[in-house]
Every structure is written in structure tokens, then in C-alpha cells.
User: What shape does this take?
Amino acid sequence: MSTKQFDAVIVGAGFGGMGAAIQLNRLGYDNIAILDREDDLGGTWHVNRYPGLTVDVPSTTYSYWFEPNPYWSRLYAPGEELKQYAEYVADKYELRRYMRFNTTVELARWDEQAGEWLVSVAGGETLRAHFLILATGYLCQPKTPDIPGIESFAGTVLHAQKWDHSYSLQGRRAAIIGTGSTGVQLVPALARDVAELTVYQRTPIWVMPKLDFGIAPVVQRLFAKVPSAQRLLRMSTDIFMDVMVTIAMWRFRQFRPVNSGAALIGRLHRFLAIRDRQLRHKLAPDYDFGCKRPTLSNTYYPTFTKPHVRLETSGIECIEPDGIVSRDGSKRTIDTLVLATGFDVWESNLPAIEVIGRNGRNLGKWWRENRFQAYEGVSVPAFPNMLTQASPYAWVGMSWFDTVEAQMRHMDRLLGELQRRGASTFEVTETANERFLAEMLRLLDDSVFRLGNCTTSRSYWFNSAGEAPLFRPTSVRSAVRAQDQFPLTDYSMA
Ligand code: NAP
Assistant: This one.
């Protein structure tokens, strides 16, 4: 099949892929292909359209710093506004011309002789690219639970990531499996419509009060006219999020009382919403705050006090054509099953596609045999001219934009230097990579992941070896500084 030649192939048309394309444009690269297996742009905000979806980080922080959106309707904007924002950014920066949808990348292989990446897509076409950028995200492989009998269910199954809005929930006898961030948003939304709702919880989640408010049109107009007014609000949400995550999670050793204070707020939140002691107890996490992504909701706990909503915690024995049988022998008859069962982060992701570097090094295999690792969360030895976004130790802060923009800075410094030297390939050195990994492991020693009680959290932040290598355990500020200052000698360039 035809082989096209590009400056860069970016895999993923979400905010990460679009940020990378904007950065490449700024560096003068214009021959770019952005490939995405979905049928439109926006990544997670295209795929997730379930009822009740809102961003769970203040929208002022959850957006590109260089492209503030004055028109968020709330502090925590609904999902469709995020999708519209993605479309706005794509149009403003003329990114659609690079995008190809319904295009599944199967393999990327470094061609040593040509000094290029060969990117194979389903259907047989191969693209050649000088740079390869993996922007597939951490949460892109939805998980269907392996529950006996699930395929025999005769009613309607709704997946959070494939919501069918034509299906009416009115009057249904529904069940939802999963009480992570998605479940916490879905439960109150479902309860508004269905006649009966049973919530199957395996592990309770920390739910914190949501300090949300609508942003009046007059304030939106002010933000549009005086961007610094919105920047001021952003500064406060940025600083609050960064300080909280840094001290409650990464500086757990020194600030354990702050973590306990956050947990106390969570307990109080539950206490104020639910009078039934037994119900409160069932909803109480028995692991430390910060082991698993905490959620924000003012409506989740009160939903369980409604007469048509039931919490089931004895575990699922099996699913039958007309209902769910619990481990205690009871059965709920249902016609609608909602799956909010999360994503596979460790088996079919990291990386989301097969990537073969120098000397046949297979990225997924190498990570699994040698620990998950990536220099500054973006580069891997033996993978020249490749930058990977959702990598080990890349995730910084709670807003995905923090990660994306830190990496844009890394690209700027790295590719800018490549151009200055008139070089065509870069590759991080083994020494730099080892030094960075050692530093991340040292920092993790102070974190809630190491010192807290996380064993019962079943958090997808941990892999099966009990390691938590997704996050860079530093503040966003420090991560950004590192991208501006990393020694250029950490890369070999030729
Ligand atoms: P998740 O946090 O991994 O939660 C999945 C839920 O499904 C858990 O409660 C899990 O129980 C349950 N589950 C999975 N398999 C099960 C089984 N076989 N039987 C019973 N229960 C099962 O996934 P998520 O809720 O989709 O959230 C993932 C991430 O997406 C979040 O951490 C967040 O980063 C992001 N997110 C963001 C937003 C937003 O910004 N609006 C919204 C949603 C999600 P266990 O805990 O016991 O495994």
C-alpha cells in the first residue's frame, strides 16, 4: 500500500495530540498526520457522553493556558462544553486538515536505515514519519468486566463510553456496576429517570464536596473582554489543585495531617448526607485518601437515601438473562445494565499500540521486563525521535492539560535544539533515563502510595507488581520548571 511521508505522525486526536500539533506548528513543522481510531476529535470528550458527565477539575484549570475559554457555563463544565472547546481549538489552530479518523494504528517501527518511523494502520497503509508522537491517553481501553453470565444478559447494556442516547431510561429497572469517578457522576443522573436503581459497589470511593457554581453571562463577557480577570480565577484554581495534590499525596510523609484533614472532610460530607449509619458504613472507604482518584459530588450520597435506589455490596455472583445474582444469594431483576467499570491501563495500554524501536526493542515488552520508565515522562532509550504522552511518570497534577503543556515545553526545548544543531535524530541516553527513574522512585518514598494504607483501594494507579508508575510525584510547577531546564546533554543528537 502507498507510503506517505510526514514530518510527524501523532496518534490520538484528543487534547494531547492537538497540543503536540500546535507545538510542532510553532516549531515550523506543517506536514503532520493526526490519526485517531474514533470518528471525530476530542479523545475522551468525544467518547464519553454519558448522562451527568462533567469535568472533575475546575474548568479554569482544565483548559490550555494559552487558550482560555471565557464561556464555560459552570466552574465544573458539562462534558459537551469540553467537546465544543476541543472543536474550537481544532478550528482556531487549523488542526482538522491533519486529522484522519476511523484510522487505527496497529504498529510503529523505527527504520534504522532511513532514520524514520514506519506507522502501519489497519487496512494495510504505511505512513513514514520523521517524528512519532503517541497521544493515546491513559484511559482509552474501556474494560468490560469478566463476570460469569454477563454475555447472557437479555436486557440492554449501556457502556459509559458508548452511551446510546436514543435509549430511554424512563421507568427502567436498572443496575450500575462501578463506583469510580464515572459511576459517581452516573448514579445521580440515572436515579433521576429510572424506576429502580441498584448500585453494585465493590470498593467505596472517597467523595468530596463539589464547590461548583454557574458562571453568569455577564461574567463570561467580562472574561472575554478582560482575560486577566479569568487568569486570576485560574491562578487560584491552579494553585489550590497543585498544593493539595502535592502535600496530600506526594508529601504524605511530611504532611500526613493534611491528608487526614481531607479524609475528615470526606467523612463529614458523608455524615451530613446520610443518616443511616449502616449505609454510611457501607459507603466508607477503608484506605487512605489519595490512593485512588477521589471524586467530587454533592448529589452522589443523597441519591442513596431515595426509596428507589439500593446499594449492593455483597459482590456479584453472576449475571442471568433477567438480572444480577449477588454473593449473598439475592437476585435483582433488571432490564438495563450500566457498565461504569473503568479502563484497562496495564494490559492493553502503555503503549496502546505496538511500538518497535532501535535493535528491535519492543516498548511494551521492555517496560514490563525492566520496570515502567520514561525520561521526564516523554522519552525512552532506543526509541529515537519518539515522544510519548501517557507514559510512566508523565502524569502531573490532576488536570490533563498540566501534563500536555509540560510536554509541549519539553518538545519546544528538545526540537528547538535539534533544529539549532541541524541534527535530524534525538535519543535520550540510558544514563539520563536511569537518573530520572531513580529520582522518581526516591520521591515516591514520601508519597501516600508508599506510606499510606492503599492495599484495599484497588486503584488503577497501581500495577500488578504494586508499583504506581503513572504519576510524576512532584508539583506541576516543579514539573514545568524541569521541562525548561533539563540538560540538553541528556539527549544524543545526530
Ligand atoms: P475506575 O475509577 O477504574 O472505576 C471503575 C469501577 O468499576 C470501580 O468501582 C471498580 O471497582 C468497578 N469494577 C470494575 N470491574 C468490576 C467487576 N468485575 N465487578 C465489580 N465492580 C467492578 O474507572 P472510572 O470511574 O471510569 O474512572 C477512571 C478515571 O477516569 C478517573 O480516575 C478519572 O481520572 C477519569 N474520569 C474523569 C471524569 C471527569 O473528569 N469528568 C469522569 C469520569 C472519569 P473496584 O474499585 O473494586 O475495582
Remarks:
- The chain has two domains: 3-141+345-493, 142-205+301-342.
